[in-house]
Amino acid sequence: MDFDFSDDQQQLRDAVRRWVDKGYTFERRRSIVEAGGFSREVWGELAELGLTALTVPEEHGGLGLGATDVMVVMEELGRGLVMEPLAQAFVAAGVLGKHADASVAGQWLPRVASGEALVVLAHQERQARYRLDVCAAKASKSGSGYTVDATKSVVPAGDAADAFLVPAQLDGKIALFLVERGASGVSTQGYRTQDGSRAAELRCQAAPATLVTADGLAALTLAQDAANAALCAEGVGAMEQTLKLTTEYMNQRKQFNTVIASFQALRHRVADMKMQLELARSMSYYASLKMSAADAERHVAIARAKVQLGQSLRFVGQQSVQLHGGIGVTDEYAGSHYFKRLTQMEMTGGDTLHHLGIVSAKMQDTAGVFA
């Protein structure tokens, strides 16, 4: 198989990398964190680069690109610790493009592509523990439309979003709805997360909603898989930069008048970090390639990738702190922010144990080796 990126993908990577290096410096990121963890200005810059339109179908004003292009972009955003939830644009494009009817898709996809509308997935409930089939939210018919009663947690940039994709029970089955933030009965409570980004609690009380699809579990699974594939790629970029910062520090820090990079025991630990990074990279590629597979195959593949990513994220982040010493956890040093982001990533979209359970439950007698 040919794993080389195309010229267009290389150009896309270069364009995003240049923006990250020049437009999203560590100082700018810190100012955004202090201002609340989300910047509409940065979101507009991502839209100007065409990134919000990346996976939107061409007939709706998008570029119509695929999962590999998403992976390329998210690696570079991870390298720069970009907090704005671009992956949510890919989630919205995938769900609305595949599951919404023509009128709903025609209304929202052009706005997603232009960056005018930030549509985010709001599905987590306190009692669900990462399970997608556990949903206490209720929907009911109201005239010619629907209303939703729901409480959702850790909604990405929830108090800045324009609309939410909300799963809710309808006639005993999970359906997926689109709820606008400005609709009556909708309230949000925003807060900063541990890595400095922004999230919110969402509450809907008889909020007017648009039905996206009655097959909500399939749409929700696609949304979570797309988000996790993007997260895997973002994690690879963040780990790559973490490793770079660590090796640069080790080549400067001296002990006994000798740079610590020359100590064999520490070199072995860096080699282990590099190995975990490359294991994660290969599984990130695997996850992106499997996004076009059948639903059941795709979901297990993403779980496999998330298991490896979870192990790698935690290992690389913790080893970086250990090799840096005290400076590795100071707020003024970029490395501490990479550590917090890597740690939060491991628990986002289902932690390692959750996805290990999915992999184990789907394992056959041959473990898939000879099947």
Describe the structure.
With 371 residues, the chain is an alpha+beta fold. The chain folds into three domains: 7-114, Butyryl-Coa Dehydrogenase, subunit A, domain 1 (Orthogonal Bundle), CATH 1.10.540.10; 119-214, Beta Barrel (Butyryl-CoA Dehydrogenase, subunit A, domain 2), CATH 2.40.110.10; 219-361, Butyryl-CoA Dehydrogenase, subunit A, domain 3, CATH 1.20.140. Helices cover 51% and strands 17% of the residues. The protein has eleven helices and nine strands. The protein has helices at 7-23, 26-34, 40-48, 67-79, 87-99, 102-114, 216-250, 264-289, 295-324, 334-347, 352-361, and strands spanning 119-121, 138-142, 145-156, 163-170, 173-180, 186-192, 198-213, 254-255, 258-259. Strands 1, 2, 3, 4, 5, 6 and 7 form a seven-stranded mixed beta sheet that branches. The chain has a two-stranded antiparallel ribbon with strand order 8-9. A hairpin with a 2-residue loop joins strand 4 and strand 5. It is globular and about 80 Å long. The protein starts with 6 loop residues before the first helix and ends in a 10-residue tail after the last helix. The model has no long low-confidence stretch (mean pLDDT 94).
